[in-house]
Amino acid sequence: MGKIRIMIFELSSLLQNVPQGQLFVLTDTNSAEHCLPLFAESIGETPYHLLTIEEGEKNKNLASVQLVWDFLLQHCATREAVLINLGGGMITDLGGFAAATYMRGIRFVNIPTTLLAMVDASSGGKTGFDYQGVKNVIGAFTQPMATLIDPIFLRTLPARELLNGFAEMLKHALIASQEEWVKLLQLAEEEPSQEQFVAVLSEWELLRNSIAIKEQVVAEDPLEAGKRKILNFGHTIGHAIESAALENIELGIKNFELSPSHGYCVLWGMVAEVYLSMVHAGCPREVLQQLTQVMLQYYGRPECNCKQREQLIEWMIHDKKNTQSSCSIQINFTLINDVGKPIINQFLPLSAIHEAIEYLFSI
Ligand SMILES: NC(=O)c1ccc[n+]([C@@H]2O[C@H](COP(=O)([O-])OP(=O)(O)OC[C@H]3O[C@@H](n4cnc5c(N)ncnc54)[C@H](O)[C@@H]3O)[C@@H](O)[C@H]2O)c1
Ligand SMILES: [Zn+2]
After folding, report:
1. Range of the domain at 30
2. Regarding beta strands 323-324 and 107-112, do their DSSP bridges make them parallel or antiparallel, or are they unpaired?
3. Residue nearest (by alpha carbon) to ligand 1 atom 44
4. Lowest mean pLDDT: which of 31-35, 100-104, 108-112, 262-266?
């Protein structure tokens, strides 16, 4: 398992044994602007080859993977090469996959520069890219030689991207730790400014604990045979919202106001799934009230019309994780009995899901 290390100043010692000319850096346009200077400072005199690709999820595609392969080939990367992925989850997913497949696998280091990538995407070993409009459909499980995290990169991150990552931190707390949940709620209640929020994260405790939750779950079930499914909490309904929003934006349907941003969609998905947890798994109502409050305070309401709400269910039915029983379609959820008490493989009928979606849109 790639070890999470704390400061990027460990970089030089980590890369001591990389042969001359065999260090490669992949980044995107925003990370190149905001993060590359600090990276360059940390790495000192060590020379490296640099590839910068356009920012954005739309570039997490095969064409970009090919750019990375070509870049490695052109500069004669050998099996001794090391690729550093400096960026958000788009870059760590893409670069990790390119590294896993070039010469049947070369070493790579993740240096996440978004909150979402720090707490989620850069660890756990999942890499890949979007293909034929399907998110992450081509990919590989592979571990970085290290993940180096430095909260200093959060300083230039837009508020919206901080909230994307915060949603996954809330998820980690909900599935694993009452203590963390209380701390995150306290932070949210204080209504910190963006600078204060980054300052609190830079104190490390919240960040470290959130990463530790993901790392521990992945260590127990690296290939998602069972327990790792708890990390899908909020994602069954969240992905449906994300997919429906993306499709409608592509079709140019203007009255569909949902943001396709992953963390926001997961937050809304969690609200609906905590509702399901309350009705079907005995989760206390208080948890739903607390999460709903955070939603209203920071993420706003998802908006869509009745037809589009029906469409959310259709997206869930098409999800590969679901099974069709003889009498009715059921959808597979991870629920929580309470904060820190997740249960996987909870199959619920469509009527239950309709009710949860109604709740989400009625708030
Ligand atoms: N592998 C996994 O387990 C896993 C888990 C969760 C998400 N993901 C993937 O991660 C991706 C989402 O990650 P993300 O939210 O980091 O998106 P992202 O990489 O697209 O980054 C979001 C935006 O922030 C910019 N940015 C990055 N660092 C910056 C900085 N320090 N300052 C200013 N701007 C900066 C990026 O250029 C981009 O515009 C998705 O592709 C998702 O599928 C993977
Ligand atoms: Zn997620």
Report:
1. 3-155
2. unpaired
3. 121
4. 262-266
Which ligand 1 atom lies nearest to the CA of residue 91? Answer: 19
* Residue 28 near residue 59, CB atoms below 8 Å: yes
Ligand 1 atom, smallest distance to 29 CA = 37
Cβ of 121 below 6 Å from ligand 1: yes
User: Could you say which ligand is closest to the alpha carbon of residue 239?
Assistant: 2
- Tokens 């995290």 appear where? 149
The confidence band for 326, taking pLDDT boundaries of 50, 70 and 90, is very low
pLDDT over 90 at 251, yes or no: no
Buried b (16+ CB within 10 A) or exposed e, 168-180: bbbbbbbbbbeeb
Ligand 1 near 117 CB (within 6 A): yes
Is the beta carbon of 161 within 6 A of some atom in ligand 1?
A: yes
List the beta bridge partners of residue 139: 128
Question: pLDDT-derived band of residue 316, with 50, 70 and 90 as boundaries?
Answer: confident
Q: Is the pLDDT of residue 255 over 50?
A: no
- The sign one gets for the Cα dihedral 185, 210, 148, 126 is negative
Residue nearest to atom 3 of ligand 1 (CA): 121
Rounded-to-integer distance, Cα 226 and Cα 5, Å: 27
Active site (catalytic) residues = 104, 126, 168, 214, 224, 228, 232, 235, 239, 262
Whether 208 and 146 map to the same domain: the answer is no
Q: What is the pLDDT of residue 224?
A: 87
Ligand 1 in reach of 90 Cβ (< 6 A): yes
The pLDDT value given to residue 249: 64
Say if residue 40 is in the same domain as residue 133: yes
Shared domain for 144 and 242, answered yes or no, is no
Q: Are residues 186 and 260 in the same domain?
A: yes
Domain boundary among 106, 122, 155: 155
| Closest ligand relative to 222 C-alpha | 1
